[in-house]
Amino acid sequence: MNAPEFAYAVECNKTARQTIAALWSASLKAGWIVLGDYDMGGLIPEEEAKRGVEVKSIDMCKPVHAKPFIQQDPMTALCMPCNVLVRMADGKTTIAALKPGVMLPKLFPEAVGALGKLPFDIDAEMKAIIDQAVAAPTKAA
């Protein structure tokens, strides 16, 4: 999976489930809340599932960041919470997340313009959470 301009994506050496657990831990340590994580295996093509492909996601939020967006334009809530995709295929696990600093100005330019660098601060925090999850020791299942 290549990371386009609007996403941050990295590979890690954990299983998909271990990656989700590491993301939970890193999120909570960073002061974010986790709203849930989801196994999307039932949505992938059967031939991919037979090859061991796994797709999971985790929803994270930091209300102190979300509130100013919603106050500027309630429609920004369509982009919340921050979703992180975890995909394991061919023995590689990839973590990917949208960059609010890239996406939100394209979708809500007036609202984001009033918020200054906040979208980029969120990008940096999400990157730090993902990087911490990648670097975390793998726990036995």
Description:
Helices cover 43% and strands 26% of the residues. By secondary structure, it is an alpha+beta fold. It has a single domain, classed as TT1751-like domain (TATA-Binding Protein, 2-Layer Sandwich), CATH 3.30.310.70. It has a 5-stranded antiparallel sheet. Helix 1 packs across helix 6 and helix 4 packs antiparallel against helix 6. The two termini are 26 Å apart.
Could you give a short description of this structure?
This protein is α+β, with helices and mostly antiparallel strands. Helix content is 43%, strand content 26%. Helix 1 crosses helix 6.
Uncertain stretches: none
Please give the number of β-strands. 5
CATH architecture: 2-Layer Sandwich
CATH fold description: TATA-Binding Protein
Q: What is the CATH homologous superfamily assignment?
A: TT1751-like domain
| Tally of helical runs | 6
Oligomer: single chain
Roughly what fraction of the amino acids lie in strands? 25-35%
CATH class: Alpha Beta
**Percentage of helical residues?**
40-55%
Topology pattern, helix = H, strand = E: EHEHEHEEHHH
Overall mean pLDDT stands at 91
Query: For the largest beta sheet, what order do the strands appear in spatially?
Result: 1-5-4-3-2
Radius of gyration: 16 Å
Distance between the termini: 26 Å
Largest sheet: 5 strands, antiparallel
Count of domains: 1
Basic shape: globular
Structural class: alpha+beta
